Amino acid sequence: METRRKRLAQARKAAGLSQEKLAEHLRLHPGTIHRWESWGREPRGYVLPKLAHLLGVTREELDEMLAEGRDPSRTPGPMRRRPGSRAAQREAESVATPAEGGDAGDPAP
């Protein structure tokens, strides 16, 4: 499967940035940029706003560039909570506890 993101590399070059310079601006290892462009790896979310700014594109345009080489088998699934974590307990409580005001099917008094 071809995962090379040509538009991402073209945007970087159009902005006058080498992989090394882009990595320096983002405070990342240069190999990380190479993996984004050549192997279809995903940039972390916190990098996206600055990456879009450095490339001179909107977030929507950046998302399109990243989708170009996305491997569907690596698409993340729904977020799962670690069993026993506070977040998992709160989530379970909110599902188990009916909303205040009674059941929506109850007739009004």
TrEMBL record:
Domain of life from the UniProt record: Bacteria
InterPro entries listed in its UniProt record: Cro/C1-type_HTH, Lambda_DNA-bd_dom_sf
Domain HTH cro/C1-type: 8-62
SMART domains: HTH_XRE (SM00530)
A Pfam family assignment: HTH_3
Region (Disordered): 64-109
PROSITE patterns (alphabetical): HTH_CROC1
MF (Gene Ontology): DNA binding
Gene3D superfamilies reported for this sequence: lambda repressor-like DNA-binding domains
Name under which the protein is recorded: Helix-turn-helix protein
